[in-house]
Amino acid sequence: xxxxxxxxxxxxxxxxxxxxxxxxxxxxxxxxxxxxxxxxxxxxxxxxxxxxxxxxxxxxxxxxxxxxxxxxxxxxxxxxxxxxxxxxxxxxxxxxxxxxxxxxxxxxxxxxxxxxxxxxxxxxxxxxxxxxxxxxxxxxxxxxxxxxxxxxxxxxxxxxxxxxxxxxxxxxxxxxxxxxxxxxxxxxxxxxxxxxxxxxxxxxxxxxxxxxxxxxxxxxxxxxxxxxxxxxxxxxxxxxxxxxxxxxxxxxxxxxxxxxxxxxxxxxxxxxxxxxxxxxxxxxxxxxxxxxxxxxxxxxxxxxxxxxxxxxxxxxxxxxxxxxxxxxxxxxxxxxxxxxxxxxxxxxxxxxxxxxxxxxxxxxxxxxxxxxxxxxxxxxxxxxxxxxxxxxxxxxxxxxxxxxxxxxxxxxxxxxxxxxxxxxxxxxxxxxxxxxxxxxxxxxxxxxxxxxxxxxxxxxxxxxxxxxxxxxxxxxxxxxxxxxxxxxxxxxxxxxxxxxxxxxxxxxxxxxxxxxxxxxxxxxxxxxxxxxxxxxxxxxxxxxxxxxxxxxxxxxxxxxxxxxxxxxxxxxxxxxxxxxxxxxxxxxxxxxxxxxxxxxxxxxx
Amino acid sequence: xxxxxxxxxxxxxxxxxxxxxxxxxxxxxxxxxxxxxxxxxxxxxxxxxxxxxxxxxxxxxxxxxxxxxxxxxxxxxxxxxxxxxxxxxxxxxxxxxxxxxxxxxxxxxxxxxxxxxxxxxxxxxxxxxxxxxxxxxxxxxxxxxxxxxxxxxxxxxxxxxxxxxxxxxxxxxxxxxxxxxxxxxxxxxxxxxxxxxxxxxxxxxxxxxxxxxxxxxxxxxxxxxxxxxxxxxxxxxxxxxxxxxxxxxxxxxxxxxxxxxxxxxxxxxxxxxxxxxxxxxxxxxxxx
Lengths: 605, 288
Known about the structure:
The structure holds 2 protein chains of 2 kinds. Chain A is built from 27 helices and 12 strands. Chain A is elongated, with a radius of gyration of 29 Å. Chain A has 2 domains: 282 residues, no CATH class; 181 residues, Rossmann fold (3-Layer(aba) Sandwich). Chain A is of the alpha/beta class. Chain A has a 6-stranded mixed β-sheet, with helices on both faces. Chain A has a 4-stranded antiparallel β-sheet with strand order 4-3-6-7, covered by helices on one side. The longest helix of chain B has 32 residues. Chain B is an all-alpha fold. Chain B has a two-stranded antiparallel ribbon. Classes of the chains: A alpha/beta, B mainly alpha. The interface between A and B is large, with 46 and 44 residues.
């Protein structure tokens, strides 16, 4: 089911780029602009369309945070309500023009989003959802009691002479239709641009895999904060619009939990993380609720909500990618099975590997690990480990299970904080830096189990990494293709990463790390799970990478392969370094043999 | 604040706390089993409150008598919801899991509004009404029965979980699903059992609550948010922790209601959620 969701999300990035789409869009926009003249003052239809536009815009705005950045908020009424209250209070207390009030509202809502995100973005999954729920409910309750904002009675919007300048039109509701249409159009264009923009790619990467995005150098907090600021700011404008439209606001109508739910439901129903999803969701949900209200009178006795609920359940159970997935070819699943490139592609057509392009000197340490210790409960995972990584070398770390290799790896890439000791990169201390900071400083890792961004194609996976340092899209694309070629995956560039084989994923992981142009590449078992026939290819690739000037530290179980690859080996056992030196020497070391095979076998040998 | 007043607040807080605990225990059971938060849990509470109310007003059955019936009916509803809805998303994305029970929440709430209207109803004059005077402290009967009922239910749940074969299987699945599967435990059936037990717990809570709280379509929303906090406080997925968390919150909201306008009494509880998940995500009792 996850796969189905991701596959459809993926397909949304490739809309039809022919002349057909723009024509349809232009024609329908023109029709919508002219529609009020045809409606001839029929208030029900005019209101229906106005609310559809407003909901579509809000669904798009929610999607920036919920769909692209992957942070499910059921608290967006906070931003809607703050938007409505800000412009209204600014009008009442300061006499501020509603348009300026709208700008202020967007700023206040965006700021509220940033403040909410600051603590809450550390929470994952359900914890985040519930946090948004309880914060929204708290704010709702406080506004209900707070006399300065009208408490439970609410506020009346100050009446001004009807004019476009005053965002007020007396009895004529047609201008609201056009404003809402313009708002929905602008937000849709903004989100569509965003989804193919650098920021959009980064947000999708974070949604797909937070650890992998961070390992490339992206600060999760920073990008989620940007996403919520846009999302909340746009919802803030919707709040002001609504206040001007209905001229009376109170906590239940602008801050209540049903508002939060309604905003989230639009893209959820239509399709999370797609541009057309919120449009479709807004049309279906708004039409449902307006007609059921007209038919059953009053609040429609909540028939609309019963149908919503049933629809949402059906969507979750059968179509988690939303209604849009009914209309789209599901790309990930219909794409051809991935060709086992490991077997067919020639082994890594790259720069000659024979002579390293860089002179290696024994006395040029780039990374110094000194007396690092780390304890997990009763287990001393690392005990006073010290070593140096020399510039342009390939350093292998070996040892049996439980030797402390992975902990050491975690310390070097910033995921694990040691209890004592120091790590220095070119003389600068690193301890306490998080993995994204370390990545930006040139230490980039791969994962033991590769973690590609599953909603993206092979090329986009690398593109995200290249965008860390290259802001120009075209140049980043060139870089991405070059790296794909380097690992022998260029012919898969446009395939979804979802269908990649284990071997392809390993290469993809390496290419992605390379695209950030690391000084030191940390590889976590690059040969694990690779079929024996492909191992020479990977070894050749790693030698080529080193030849380009990258220092490599590699953890590996395959001692034989590693001894042919590494310049030096460090052997570990039970959290301590037991041997260090040339592969041939270390492999012969009694202590290593002992650690792997035990004393008796060694004695017998 | 006098000692008597404090004692009074403490007693009524604990009475409410047992209800919160009972609701939270059901949530924690499911979360512990399959990592799913049931957003419709509050609506299960609402349904059992309506059932209790209508049995009383139409069938003249006292809540004391309907309690086991409501619990049994809710057990069946929980199992039904598992097989029809939850089972389909159990291996799906977190999004799908959230929206499945979220959709159920919206559906049940709207359905209640459609069939029962938005009015508030109350059970009055049941066997469990009235007060008991203990020295200078007034003990309302409904709260006392809630405390007793919640304690007995939790004990029964404990016995089921730790001293019966299905209970052992249940715990096995919650600790290591794959390992339990290899040992021949039918995980699917255990999940269904967990949903049944969870719904039965909240059914008992609803029956007890109906004696001293209004019934209306949105009643679940208030209680379930508080129950989330209780679950977080006790450590997500810990049934014992949820009970403990519920009691703490019961007292906290009564004290908050004493110092703040009563509408704001839950705000400190909600803030407590944020503090807990940010500062001590394993809960008060959980290990770091």
